Amino acid sequence: MYILVIEDNPDLVANLYDYLEPRGYTLDAAYEARSGLQFASEKSFDAIVLDLTLPGLDGIELCRQLRDAGSHTPVLMLTARDTLDAKLEGFAAGADDYLVKPFALQELDVRLRALIRRARCDHESEKLQVGDLVFDPETLSVQRAGKTITLPPIPLKILALLIRQSPRVVPKRELERRIWGNERPDSDSLRTHLHVLRSAIDKPFDTHLLRTVHGMGYQLAAPDEVQG
């Protein structure tokens, strides 16, 4: 589970790292709103933990900008404001949940897992398609041009990540982090699994969908979605 924490209190951020990472989370942290917006636009997160009081731009406006930009990433707001009006303002801005400071880290963990589980169920209700390649998140089945393709677990996970981000170029480090978390593999592991994926979904077909964008990352896209 990949989480973005936007919080200006470094002690709280450190506590979140210490508590959540041993429980299977991978965290990125931004200490002010502008860098938080940049993180959220450049990477794909399972959830965002957002402080309401931030320097420069508060969490309410940041959340509005995320939603206006089309982000559907679940947002859990953290704040010392415990009035009903404050909570309603947060939900109206697009927050999915609200946790009042001080809070128990165990409760934060439970709420994050519930948000992520609900979001995944919503996403998995529809099949995903790039060109003539179709992935069903519910059954984990893969077809191209009507032909069923069988993939090992890691290439299948890579496909699921890339097809959800299509046509975005996903950086190598992001792929590794989403698949292996903090236990990074050796340098050739990702390349090997991508070769297996490419051999299965591209090699037997005239049109190739999986691209290596040198110096940037990997992209799954139909030819008309590839720029340049």
In short:
With 228 residues, the chain is of the alpha/beta class.
Which tags fit this structure?
228 residues; alpha/beta; Rossmann fold; Arc Repressor Mutant, subunit A; 2 domains; 5-stranded parallel β-sheet; 4-stranded antiparallel β-sheet; 8 helices; 12 strands
Provide an overview of this structure.
This protein is an alpha/beta fold. It folds into 2 domains: 2-123, Response regulator (Rossmann fold, 3-Layer(aba) Sandwich), CATH 3.40.50.2300; 128-225, Orthogonal Bundle (Arc Repressor Mutant, subunit A), CATH 1.10.10.10. Helix content is 42%, strand content 21%. It is built from 8 helices and 12 strands. It has a 5-stranded parallel β-sheet, sandwiched between helices. Strands 6-7-8-9 form a 4-stranded antiparallel β-sheet, with helices on one face. A 3-stranded antiparallel β-sheet has the order 10-12-11. The chain is elongated, with a radius of gyration of 19 Å.
